[in-house]
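[[Encoded backbone]]
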Amino acid sequence: MIREKLASLALALAAAFATAVAHAEDSGWSQLNMTRGVTHISREIYHLHMKIFWICVVIGVLVFGVMIWSMFSFRKSRGAVPDVTMVHNTKVEIVWTVIPVIILIAMAVPAARTLIEIEDTSRTELTIKVTGFQWGWQYEYLDDGVMYYSHLDRKSDAARELLSGIDPNTVDHYLLNVDHPFVIPVDTKVRLLVTGADVIHSWWVPDFGVKKDAIPGFVNEAWFKVDKDKPGLYRGQCAELCGRDHGFMPIVVDARSKADFAAWLKAKAAEQKQAAAPAAPQAPAAGATATSGAGQTAGPRATSATGRLARPATAPVPAPPAGAAARVASAS
């Protein structure tokens, strides 16, 4: 009788669980679990996580089931008498040692396989250097001469200020948007070289299954390959406490088709090349004369290779007349 009731209860629980899983996406319960992501490696991590989770569930059900059954069946009110003579059983000790070892091996094999795949940065098609700094990110496309910075967008930055009077609910993707997203192509194995400029940061995008520390003086590697049919915007954050504005350095990745990415990269390279080119010297206007009585002449401010304005050149300071130093010394 009891077995029939337990069997019916187990079937009811299984049906309820299946119904809950079917409606998880709509109810929001899926947010309590890891995301499947949009890359092969993120799905491998998710499947490994679920496999280990269900192994732990089975172990928990068996252990607590036996424990509860023992407490219920051998309670004092039913006349159970404890056996105080059994203090050692070799067979039992062998069983409860061998079974956990087998379980650990069964868990270690797929875990090791996934970890090896995570670290495999061979046969990459695009290499990008990612540098974390307080408080933003620098992206450098090493093979194409493109480099730019990514910070918290101005709307979120203004709304986060104390007494700004701006309702954060009116800002789209509050604290999760940037001024310049990280642009990458889909269906391409992208290799990241992650480092830090000042303190330790961590580049984390959950949908890619990538979380890699950015440590000053070290270069860590990571990779991802976004599915061909999954272009779009994907968001992440710095996952390492890095100072006062740690919570204000989000990550936005703009995954584009290969054609759109190639066009963007070409335009960006041309734009930065033009900005870095030195300005052409302008001919002085007719009748222009020197206006400085100290030997300095006005001229255009040159542009450095980094695009910043260089300091204007100044004429050398004339030497003091002979005997001036001696007169100053005698006067003092």
Q: What stands out?
A: The longest helix spans residues 40-73. Helices lie at 2-22, 24-27, 40-73, 90-118, 154-159, 258-276, 324-331.
